[in-house]
Amino acid sequence: MTLSAPQSRTPLSYRDAGVDIDAGDALVDRIKPLARRTMRPEVLGGIGGFGALFEISKKYREPVLVSGTDGVGTKLKLAFQLNKHDTVGQDLVAMSVNDILVQGAEPLFFLDYFACGRLDVDTAAAVVQGIAHGCELAGCALIGGETAEMPGMYPDGEYDLAGFAVGAVEKRAIIDGSKIAPGDVVLGLASSGAHSNGYSLVRKIIEVSQPDLDADFHGRPLRDVVLEPTRIYVKPLLEVFRDLPGVVKGLAHITGGGLTENVPRILGKDLVAHIDAASWTLPPLFQWLQEAGQVDPQEMYRVFNCGIGMVIVIAAADADTVAAKLSAAGEKVYRIGRIDRRAADEAQTIVG
């Protein structure tokens, strides 16, 4: 049958219901050049199809796919409050690509999900610009995603983000922590800030202490410091995997749960990581958070990365070589601890 317009009242459109298809089309047009900058030779097709196609490179003999998904968490609430949307996209990418990196995987491609009540093209484009920048830093392709405009689901000016990364690693090169042994050295790579974890506490501290977020904080406005995007460790560590194969025994991305709860994820039950808190200087942001919130030191290590965004476990004989290589690639590297045999009922990570 042929559809005909109702005659009894004013016709309704999708826009009347709160969904602007034209705005969505405008956003896609602005995303396409951003995505093109992230392309890899393995990508087949471009943005706009129903699915994204990616060919596994012939350089892999026994490729194992590694996937990860995450969001940005309540750091988004600060982005809304401060009307700053150009960095949370990098956070989104970092949370997934750093996670799959710890198993030795090279991130290949990334997809994002952006959901809002009413689509603001400028805001969404700023977010996707950050996502594309994060993909460039990680060397992975932004090959697709979804923008969902859902009236009534989110307050005006707010949105949610989720991301999904897929990487590949040779089966023989998977890093799983199984070779970690007593006597190994723990290296720490500096974080860029609080990354994307602990922001419910960050926001509570801001609410209680009422700082001037525009005030100078060690040479920058505090608002920029608390929204500093998550550091992406992919390219320097991939160089280590390539040039020093088999040397890295374990990696821990320091996310929710801080140092004390992430390092045990790569340790056997009979091992403990002793972390020397005096081996690096607590960055100013974390000093301020601890003082302004009167946060117990152990709570700090359990919630925040406290300046160490990635932990590497390596044989003592290889520690200097790996540290020098990462330093040359631009990372701040600290020798922060050692692996020991675990005593009965001892915690698996002790920071002190």
Characterise this structure:
32% of the residues lie in helices and 24% in strands. The chain has 352 residues and is of the alpha+beta class. Helix 1 (21-36) runs parallel beside helix 4 (121-138) and helix 3 packs parallel to helix 4 (121-138). The chain starts with 20 loop residues before the first helix and ends with a strand.
What global shape is seen? globular
**Kindly state the mean pLDDT as a whole number?**
93
Give the strand line-up of the largest sheet.
Answer: 10-12-7-13-11-14
Biggest β-sheet description: 6 strands, mixed
Oligomer state of the chains in this structure: single chain
Strand content: 15-25%
Return the structural class.
Answer: alpha+beta
**Radius of gyration using CA atoms only:** 22 Å
State the share of residues found in helices, binned by percent.
25-40%
Q: What's the β-strand tally? A: 14
By DSSP (H or I, 4+ residues per run), the number of helices equals: 11
The CA-CA distance between the termini, in Å, is 75 Å
In the predicted model, the low-confidence regions spanning at least 5 consecutive residues are none
User: Order of SSEs, N→C?
Assistant: HEEEHHEHEEEHEEHHEHEHHEHEE
Index terms:
six-stranded mixed beta sheet; 11 helices; 352 residues; alpha+beta; 32% helix
Question: What is this structure's SSE topology?
Answer:
Blueprint: H1 21-36, E1 43-44, E2 53-54, E3 63-71, H2 75-82, H3 88-101, E4 106-116, H4 121-138, E5 141-149, E6 159-170, E7 185-190, H5 199-209, E8 216-217, E9 220-221, H6 222-226, H7 234-243, E10 248-253, H8 258-262, E11 271-275, H9 284-293, H10 297-303, E12 308-314, H11 319-328, E13 333-341, E14 349-351
Parallel strand pairs: 4-5, 11-14
Antiparallel strand pairs: 1-2, 3-6, 4-6, 7-12, 7-13, 8-9, 10-12, 11-13
